[in-house]
Design goal:
This protein has about 200 residues and is mostly helical. It contains eleven helices and no strands. Helices cover about 75% and strands about 0% of the residues. It comes from Caulobacter ginsengisoli.
Length: about 200
């Protein structure tokens, strides 16, 4: 069955984002759009038709990653089971910051002085956006009486910091292999358990 035009466009967008993730991780923020287009199997103009500019492309790429990472906080029963939701979010966070594709963040840091606007886009639509979604989830839990938190943004920072710990620094420096699934799950569950006890009503 042939795909509809919208489905074709979506498939192209995903191919471009996948290619951009690879190329930017390999060559940094200064990577040419032509290389991203070549890797995606589309024309340079198609990239611009879909995303308008490299800044928009980077913004969408990072937003896609954040959407995937924070998905556990938006599950249908997440609000009723905050410890499980936080553990699932923590697990995705660990996997993102320890993945070999996290080299995009490392290269962004290296390119920040020369390309501050793109570096800002990565931060605003990446770590900052992820933390804001976590804070919104915690606010819902506070209003429901399942958590008692005075400073919600600070609590979100505490949780993310507890989960990421030294793993992010090691990943940025390329000093450690990703944890095993068992190690990541154990850490995620422990972080959620400790956090829930610390902010119990």
């Amino acid at each position: 069955m042939p795909r509809l035009a919208g489905q074709i466009d979506l498939a192209k967008s995903e191919a471009i984002l996948d290619a951009a993730s690879e190329v930017l991780a390999e060559r940094g923020l200064a990577a040419p759009i032509e290389e991203i287009a070549r890797r995606a199997g589309v024309s340079k103009q198609t990239v611009y038709n879909h995303f308008g500019s490299k800044t928009e492309l980077v913004r969408e790429l990072v937003a896609r990653r954040v959407s995937s990472m924070t998905a556990p906080l938006r599950e249908q029963d997440a609000e009723a089971h905050p410890e499980e939701a936080l553990a699932a979010y923590a697990l995705t966070l660990i996997r993102v910051v320890t993945a070999r594709t996290y080299s995009l963040m490392r290269i962004t840091m290296q390119s920040a002085a020369e390309m501050p606007d793109l570096a800002r886009e990565v931060f605003e639509n990446g770590p900052k956006a992820s933390r804001a979604q976590l804070a919104r989830f915690l606010e819902i839990e506070v209003k429901a009486g399942r958590l008692a938190i005075d400073d919600i943004p600070q609590a979100a920072d505490f949780f993310a910091g507890m989960v990421v710990s030294h793993r992010q620094t090691q990943a940025l420096l390329g000093l450690a292999d990703p944890p095993t699934d068992e190690e990541a799950e154990r850490t995620a569950k422990a972080a959620a358990r400790v956090f829930m006890r610390a902010y119990a009503p």
